[in-house]
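A reminder before we start the practical. When you read a complex entry, don't treat the lines as separate problems. The point of joint prediction is that each chain is placed relative to the others, so the output describes one connected object in space. Small molecules and nucleic acid strands, if listed, are placed in the same frame. In the example below there are two entries. Take a minute to note the order of the lines before looking further.
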Amino acid sequence: MAGRKEDPAIAVPTRALSNVRFNEESRHIEMGENKQSRNFFNYGQAKRFMQTLLVASKCKELIDRDKTASIRQVYYLSKHTIKGTKEKTFDDQSESDPVIEDLEVAIDSLREELHVFASNRGNMAGPVTLVDAGNTLDCAAMGSAGYAVPSIVEADVIQFKKCSAKFILHVEKDTVWRRFHEDRFWETHRCIISHGGGQPARGMRRLLRRMHEELKLPVFVLLDNDPWGYYIYSVIKHGSINLAYESRRMAVPDAVFLGVSSFDYERCEMSDDVKIELDANDIKRAKQIANYPWFADKRPWQKEIRKMLANGFKMEVEAMISKDLEYLTGEYVPMKLKDKKQWLD
Amino acid sequence: MAGRKEDPAIAVPTRALSNVRFNEESRHIEMGENKQSRNFFNYGQAKRFMQTLLVASKCKELIDRDKTASIRQVYYLSKHTIKGTKEKTFDDQSESDPVIEDLEVAIDSLREELHVFASNRGNMAGPVTLVDAGNTLDCAAMGSAGYAVPSIVEADVIQFKKCSAKFILHVEKDTVWRRFHEDRFWETHRCIISHGGGQPARGMRRLLRRMHEELKLPVFVLLDNDPWGYYIYSVIKHGSINLAYESRRMAVPDAVFLGVSSFDYERCEMSDDVKIELDANDIKRAKQIANYPWFADKRPWQKEIRKMLANGFKMEVEAMISKDLEYLTGEYVPMKLKDKKQWLD
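Here is the predicted structure of the whole assembly.
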């Protein structure tokens, strides 16, 4: 901010691909040093300047009232017609969402710390007891859908009490997760099983990171053998490119890709029934992902992706059960966990 | 099935719009009497006949092993290459899904009773204690995301133990639900709050029905003021047209539409900020819904839908908080609950 007689301004780190880089040491995607100044006395920037302060004041109000709001709710809270004009502060949520992101980077916080939440998605089960909003919950006894991971999982909401799990197995979909839960995988392998309902929501990723860091649990990831699966792994491990600034507190750089690998078709003697032909988009995406800086210099990943392209097909985690309903949980994953040579890092 | 020397056949009630009708008395959508015979000694039907038996045998296996599987898993379990040929039992899940539905109607069961599950979605909180897969869960103390409603909620999985709630408030989205949960609405109003993450999944609908029936709880529904909101209400109340056969055990014909009503813009003196213009598709859908037999002869619903068309705009539940963060939970819904004249049935 500026002093007296100066043009009020906010410095916002530039959220653009050009200002994103891969930190080789910490192994997460991070933002560079570029900043943009947003000035009040600038015809082109005044509106955005005011919008930023408006959203900031709403966040301050949320924190003061000890309430949270969705990004859509922040939009409705901030939208009004400016007195004496027909001009609205925001015409659409697509205007307020980037302002929330600006604010996150400008004051180096996560939106969850500003009491703003995203949709929640994801469940988990296993021998960990935590306190969530004052309720003590044993995740080994939370019913058939498990513990519902909320959108805000910061330390003021969730505290870990007890944990006898040795690792976390994170799977892609709820239907796969249910297979593991029903087969009591978390009990026989003393672990936590979690899923994110596809690309995991922020709450799930942040919780994985916190459990990894605070409970010292290794994270294994089981995803479909397709470019989308590779991408989900990439985001869990290194962070997302669009929201690079959050990676520092969301990414799990030690996460291990357990499968499904392109080599598993032969390795596990699967039948043709599991094959799904790659389409043009799959091939394009696979090549893009192979060129991500964090995959480009890893020989095992290059081999993995080349093998998928050579196979000409992709495979789903659920396809593993075409051998038997319990093959996935009783044989496939235990084999994968044992044989470190099959891990992709 | 057929006796000795007869052509083996299965009678499958016809799942087509022509065989669907609205039962005025029970107030749910139901199937008519039309059946199709599926014969083994019929060139055009033999494959489907075999597929039906194959899926049936997999379901029997699931039940015998006390396991469940997703519809995708049933597909992979049933898919194989027929010995000595290159013919597959199923080429695609789009072939096995209708067979599961055939089976449901042919033996008058829900897929959940055949141990087949859909994706789960939806959460709830409030003063009800239930047992889920042997775990006793107090839904008033399940953390910030509440109790995760599983995909199978039949009586062998979920039993109700204790309930001091007086009614259920079902809302459309998780972000709205979180508003109610955070504001402790279930506590101040002694009720259960639930959401289905949009169009509620089967598990959520079946649980609403069971709580309505077994715990004698009235169901109030709070949805966006748009054709999609009307449609969700229609499905919760009367059942879905595509899966008419399940309505008898999933629909809640007494469910009450609490809002958001097209009249609430004026009634609640909302500002212009809540308006979202109707598009051509909204207008088309609204007219279609007005013509549903179960809405067509209800004057209040005709007025409601006509008012939306006259307004020319739709409104979201979350827009109500543009007045204040707590307006929705502290004023709007309490007012709606009190004033029976505003209920839409």
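Discuss with your neighbour: Chain B touches chain A through 53 residues (CB under 8 Å). What might explain this?
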